[in-house]
Amino acid sequence: MKPYEKFLKIAQEKGYFEKHETVLIALSGGLDSMTLFNWLYRAKETLDIRLSVAHVNHKQRDASDNEEKALRAKMLELKIPFYTASFTGTFSEEKARHFRYDFFETIMEENSITALVTAHHKNDLTENFLIRQIRGSRLRYLTGMEEVQDFGDSRQKLELIRPLLSFEKSEFNASDYFEDASNAGNDFLRNRVRNTYLPAFEKENPRFEENLTSLTDEIKRAMAIVTYSGRAFAAASKIDLIEFSREIDDLQYFILQEYIAKFPELEVSKAQFDELLHIIKRDGQYFHAISSDYNFVKDRYYFYIEERSKATEFETSLTPFATGDFAEITLPEHGQIVIRKREAGDRITVNGIDKKLRRYFIDQKISLKKRGNPLIVVENQIYGVLDVIDTDLSKSLKHDKMGRTLYYREKR
Fold first, then answer.
1. Considering only 17-21, 64-68, 133-137, which range has the smallest mean pLDDT?
2. Does residue 286 belong to any structural domain of this protein?
3. Which of 84, 102, 176, 223 is the most exposed place for a label (fewest CB within 10 A)?
4. Which part of the chain is the Lysidine-tRNA(Ile) synthetase C-terminal domain (predicted)?
């Protein structure tokens, strides 16, 4: 069976696109993503989907701008909506990945697109496994990639679809694509894995990649059993000590792992993890700060993790306070002022860069306590986060000496 026919057969049998009318293809311009685009373009009527394309120019090579122009021209000729963004800031693989997926989610939210499609394939599974092993990832992160999974934190139901995971790169057949010369270098870990480590392992055993794929599948099955066995604890905000103690030691280990994973911004070292497991099993109550933002608590009946402090409360006024220190945010002259908590999908503009508020907090290492501070919103535009940041919108108004001034201070 030819590769395209295999692709179409898998897509139809697995119903990847049955719930979706519009899909966004993540298109780098390389062999993998151009093959994916060609196959989806060829199959769009059969699958009953409309295509859009998103491209990120990472600005790391001289050819990047010309490649973007060529892709834009191709999509214009084919009448395919084309969205692009340029990476800014200090480049790293991790930062670039976050930038791409934040951009993809934004495009999907703004254009009512419900599926993101990427060209990850079978060889990527092997590379990712080795990279995570090298970085010391836990077993639960060695389960490979899902063909279909929920995507983003939008109110919309978005999915990430990887329809090429059963394909080898050797099966890709795009004739018109860009070759990234930097892939031949070893500056990045992924390149070293691809160019040096994997060939060395395959020299020892030509079936190494096949064996690693099989191992990944076995780990996924094992973790599914662990998750099923610990399902009684999955939704709990506090873990019942008696119920926990009834499980075998090995399952207790994974139950605690899953519980800590509910706090993605909390980093617990292996030594800390082992100490927590020891504290849970021994007699006596316990209260200790396991990070600057979280406490670990064990009382007579439960153990749980809690934020060390709640969000600060503020007083606000459109006139200056008579006494005490206060800060201010400049707002438009007209429009209802809304003071509210952060919501999924909130975005701000800072120093000319529009990004998700969640990503801004992470990049700037804003404390969890301050991430709960109120937002100041006018006509669905965010002008500031109290005691954290004034957006470009507010600063522009202040510079032009236009609009209203909102004064605020911490409530005593």
1. 133-137
2. yes
3. 176
4. 337-395
Q: Which domain holds residue 254?
A: 230-307
Q: For the chain, what's the residue count?
A: 412
The contacts of residue 296 (CB under 8 Å, 6+ apart) are 276, 279, 286, 287, 288, 289, 290, 303, 304, 305
Domain finish residue from 155, 189, 204? 204
Q: In terms of domains, do 319 and 290 share one?
A: no
Per-residue pLDDT tens over the stretch 219-277: 999 999 999 999 999 999 999 999 999 999 999 999 999 999 888 788 888 899 999 99
Q: Is 170 annotated as a binding residue?
A: no
pLDDT value, residue 266: 87
pLDDT reading at 281 higher than 70: yes
**Does residue 38 lie in a domain region?**
yes
Kindly state whether residue 223 falls inside one of the protein's structural domains: no
- Terminal alpha carbon distance of the chain: 73
Residue 280 and residue 389 in one domain: no
What CA–CA distance (Å, rounded) separates 328 from 317? 9
> Does 237 show up as a binding residue in the annotation?
no
Contacts of 332 (CB under 8 A, 6+ apart): 378, 379, 397, 402, 403, 404
Q: What is the pLDDT of residues 287-308, one digit of tens each?
A: 888 888 889 999 889 999 988 7
Partners of residue 337 on adjacent β-strands:
378
291 is known to lie in a ligand binding site: no
Q: Are the C-beta atoms of 188 and 194 separated by less than 8 Å?
A: no
User: Per the annotation, does 29 bind a ligand?
Assistant: yes
CA–CA dist 281, 358 (Å, integer): 36
Residue 361 and residue 399 share a domain: yes
31 is in an annotated binding site: yes
Q: In this structure, is residue 215 part of a structural domain?
A: no
Q: Please report the sign of the dihedral spanned by the C-alpha atoms of residue 353, residue 355, residue 357, residue 360.
A: negative
